[in-house]
Amino acid sequence: MRYRGAILKLFGLIGSLSSACFIPAYASEVRPTLPLFEHAYEPHDLDERGLWQKWDEYEKEFARSPAVYHAPDLVNYVKGVLCETVGFDRCGATRIYIVRDTNFNASMAPNGIMSVNTGLLLRVKNEAELASVLGHEFAHFEQRHSLNSFKKRRRGSDLVSWMTIVAGAAAAAGGSGAYQHHRDYRTSIYGEVYRYERDQERESDILSAQYLVISPYSSGAGAHVWLRLLDEDAEQARERKRSRRRQWTGWADSHPSSFERADYLSRLAEEANDEGVYKASEYMEAIRSYMPEFFDDQLQRNDFSATKFLLEQIAQDGWTPDLLFLQGELYRKRGNPRDLVTAATAYLNAIEAGYENPNAWRGLGLSQMRSGAQAEGKQTLKTYIRMAPDAPDASMITLLIGEE
Amino acid sequence: MSLSIAKVATAAAVSLLLLSSQPTIAGWKHIKVESNEVGKGGMTVVPLSEWNRWSKRESNRGESWTKNGFPLNRIDFFSQIEAGESIYKERSKKHQPLPKFQSDMLLPDVAELFKANFSIVTDATGFEVTKLEPAKLGSVPGLKVSYTYLHPNDPLTRLGEARMAVYNKRLYVINYTAPRLHYFDESVSEARAIMDNVILN
Questions:
Q1: Which CATH architecture group holds A280-402?
Q2: What's the whole-model pTM score?
Q3: Mind listing the domains of chain B with CATH numbers?
Q4: What ipTM describes this predicted complex?
Q5: Whether B116 and A66 lie within 8 Å, measured CB to CB
């Protein structure tokens, strides 16, 4: 963390050489121009019509899928942030779907399906950060990246097929090294496809930054997202004794590294010098009621350090009763003797702060019993059963209370 | 001449080495309606009908059966899990570490251990325990977990029923899961019979 600023600057120098052609420089008073907007856009050529048709069919199934989290309020809120970001005229072409998935991700289909993972909603801290990711996905849509990528991949595989025939003929005619040349060209073509797709990601990042400059949101938020993901990865890497990820962009990577993205997005924000808003409290208010459920999925990942980091990030503006409860759950699940003490304290703090969900008494009682405080634990669990007589585990807990 | 004999001998030795070091090819084994030693002898199970066993094991002392293919129905057996071991086999400590069974766990903790192991290994999301109740695994008192879950980008809601018990300080689990649509109900009564009649070794 301490050296990150210096490393970012060094990386900035390298990045400025490698990606200079992608980063537009604009003075603070010059506002960027967005791509031309066509209302009720219809696919143009055969390929695009085919792609849309495929995705239209997919959407019919997808919209009914139980993996889509059905929360009209939340969907409307996310759509509202998108509309603020890209403009109310442009955003109308999209449909937002919240997908129950702990990974940080969002995706965009060419026909306007925008999927946003619950893991992403847990990891952004304000509307501006959410806007930067939604803007990125919308940029893929507006620039028709899926179609371009499809064409690029098809051209690549056509070329490889033709070269296989030529190499076979050359080898049959006695051409030495024909297969080696074929392998080299094939590798180079695959590399070119990956590079092309990474360039599309950079283009979307840049266009997203431009949306943010024009929108009420601060374009500085874009870099914050990637920096925090790097910090989360560092926590996980330390715990799991593995090397850190997303530091450098590899040959076959589909996206630029988080480090590179943070670098050019922070430089763009510096150049734009816009004075947008972040809207952190509005964001937390909008996801507060959904957070325990989304966080429960994260708690199942056996990812203590990264989850603790995530929780502390969310709690930066104060440990609310529901966050204290989640802290109790996190420590109780790891279950070392010292963790059970921390968990019990967190549950007690949550209850004291006004948390009324019976699960706080459940967690507290189980922590106490496992720590050896049997009588105290049973008493707490009795309170749990009194508060939630129809809980799914009521008969199990009743048995536990009855045991000597 | 002697050189060519040496060459042949070397080639034979190398091929023998290659043959012996080749990985075992995974395959199916027919499970008959008779007494079956499951998980390298960790449990004894008598099914009511025929099943198919996949040779790849989800745990060192476990095995998995299906009738129509794993996406449609599966029953997993895990036996003799010691303290400090995970329920499912931990395939990558660095990328997918699994929570471990601890000797001081209470039965509701064991249910949560199963929930986390299962969610990580199968990439399940929205795992919800619909019922957690006391039940026997064979003749040993333990617990029954009824649950639902999803896979991202999969339109099917899946149901599961697992029973687990701690016997001689070691954890035993039998887990049955299938899509709610048709398949769960089709084999759940047999899965319950297997869980009722299993002998823990």
A1: Alpha Horseshoe (1.25)
A2: 0.84
A3: 26-200 (3.40.1000.10)
A4: 0.84
A5: no
